[in-house]
Specification:
The protein is mostly beta strands and 88 residues long. It has a single domain (2-86), classed as PH-domain like (Roll). Helices cover 12% and strands 57% of the residues. It has a 7-stranded antiparallel sheet. It is globular and about 35 Å long. The relative contact order is 0.24.
Length: 88
Amino acid sequence: MVRYSIGAVGASGLGSIEVGEKDTVVSLPERTHRFLTRYVTGVELGDKMALGKIKVHLTYYDLLGTREELELVMNENDSKALKKALGK
């Protein structure tokens, strides 16, 4: 399992993403998102921000088949590693 630190756009506080062989867990201050790693459909790198941060759009399907998108703020190097870990 690999863990990355994240921040959520428009929310205060920090969170984390844990990418496992089967599950991915996105823990944010207001909610925890848990889904199968194979249900991730895309990781898009967005606008660059100050202090080496970048916006990341993570798209996945939940267990009910609903398409969800999370907008996160991550360190640029971690975002590239996350994209590689998810194979996207």
